[in-house]
Design goal:
16 strands, 9 helices, 14-stranded antiparallel β-barrel, elongated, single chain, Serine Threonine Protein Phosphatase 5, Tetratricopeptide repeat, Porin, alpha+beta
């Protein structure tokens, strides 16, 4: 049985030149060609039409052994081999057809598809263009143009994507003022003593660049982020953020691994507030409908507002994503440690966040989320003389709607409305507060 299988494989892998010589000798000696078994060929075609490609291939291989020069048998044998991922065998079957009919446009189209799957894109383009030169029917040349556009996209070395976002927030407690009027028997005074509301105008620009190496598994990715928050009345809270991540990425069918050097700069009221430099690594592993994201970040922070806040920060996180139909569940579990120059600024923090998204229609998505984090500081507060411990929970819900999408490029415009409510409870009453924010935003993706 094994010898028979080996024999069949050897016959199927005849080179086009050897096949042509054998066929020529058969004609010279007037050997009557073998007639393919109609039953095998018809059974193979029937199974192929039903999508049973593996079963179809068995019958088509038998028919091929009886009549290796039959173009119809070779065509269906090539198609079944292609559908089962055996592109080399498919190419050899198509080559045998082209030996006797070099102008067969349909066969050239299939040959081009095989070379595209094998990664020999230049040869694929050559065959696609040869078919285009025959002025094929409109559906065919449109399909070929899609293939050529896909090849051109694959051959790009520099890829740019990004998002632009603009929004407005209504915040009822911009200073995170405490819920208590009196702390340690002292009545609070000043602008931050009572909750103050304000409107915040936000803009975010994210630009991504990827350089693709010859080996498509490897790339170099860079992301630049700029965020600005401008307060209508409380300009002392205006924030400007700049971030840059850059590093190598390795992607296979089993995982994606990204490593970045990170840089951050934050200005408050246009004054230098904080700089941070560090390293981040993240791995994404697909597991059926679940994507497992694991990562770590390490940063050195330089705080220009208070040098005692200078610190080393590290964070570990695990972010699984479950996708079932039009439902998505995203989770975030993390542990963060900050070792500051002054112990009462350093902390250990753990938390989690769960978000549920559902596509309500073709253009509308709804979501809701809840998160909780616990922060324990490492030393007693210099004023209150006790060690601070905070528990913060936040609820968010919202709707997003796709407003426009480009047919040619990956550009889209969407709108989002979000409601969020945050509770902070602390062992130091000064840090116990409540906050509600309503946000409206437009996002352009490109």
């Amino acid at each position: 049985m094994n010898n028979e299988i080996v024999k069949q494989k050897q016959i199927l892998r005849l080179s086009p030149l050897f096949f042509l010589i054998a066929f020529f000798l058969r004609l010279c000696f007037h050997v009557a060609p073998a007639i393919a078994s109609p039953a095998d060929f018809e059974q193979g075609k029937t199974l192929f039409t039903k999508g049973a490609y593996l079963e179809a291939r068995k019958f088509l291989e038998k028919a091929f052994l009886d009549d290796p020069a039959n173009p119809d048998i070779n065509f269906y044998l090539g198609r079944s081999a292609f559908e089962t991922g055996d592109y080399e065998t498919a190419l050899m079957a198509y080559d045998r057809v082209l030996i006797f009919n070099p102008d067969a446009a349909r066969i050239k189209l299939e040959v081009a598809r095989c070379h595209l799957r094998l990664g020999t894109r230049e040869i694929a383009k050559q065959y696609f263009r040869e078919v285009l030169a025959t002025n094929p029917p409109e559906p065919v040349w449109k399909n070929i143009e899609k293939y050529l556009a896909a090849i051109e996209e694959k051959e790009k070395r520099h890829l740019f994507t990004g998002t632009l976002r603009a929004g407005i927030n209504w915040d009822d407690n911009v200073y995170q003022s405490p819920v208590y009027d009196t702390i340690l028997g002292i009545e609070l005074t000043g602008p931050t003593a009572r909750p103050k509301s304000d409107q915040i105008f936000e803009t975010t620009a994210i630009l991504n660049h990827a350089y693709l190496f010859e080996d498509e598994r490897f790339s170099w990715k860079t992301t630049f982020t700029n965020y600005n928050a401008l307060y209508e009345s409380r300009q002392d809270l205006d924030v400007n953020y700049f971030g840059l991540n850059s590093g190598p990425a390795w992607k296979t069918s089993q995982f994606m691994w990204i490593n970045n050097m990170t840089m951050k700069h934050i200005a408050v009221e246009h004054e230098r507030y904080l700089d941070a430099f560090g390293f981040a690594t993240a791995v994404t592993v697909p597991a059926g409908p679940i994507y497992l994201n694991l990562g770590a970040r390490f940063e050195e922070k330089a705080n220009y507002d208070a040098s005692l806040r200078d610190a080393m920060n590290s964070k570990l996180y695990f972010d699984p994503v479950l996708i079932v139909g039009c439902n998505r569940i995203l989770a975030d579990f993390f542990r963060e440690t900050e070792n500051a120059d002054a112990k009462f600024y350093g902390y250990d923090r753990v938390g989690w966040h769960i978000r549920y998204e559902r596509q309500l229609s073709e253009k509308m998505t709804g979501f809701a989320s809840y998160g909780l984090q616990k922060t324990d500081y490492k030393g007693p507060d210099s004023f209150f003389l006790i060690t601070r411990s905070d528990t913060v929970d936040e609820f968010r819900a919202g709707l997003s709607r796709l407003l426009w999408q480009s047919r040619v490029a990956q550009r889209n415009l969407s709108a989002e409305a979000v409601y969020s409510h945050l509770n902070s409870d602390s062992t130091i009453d000064l840090y116990t507060y409540r906050k509600t924010v309503i946000s409206l935003a437009l996002t352009l993706g490109f």
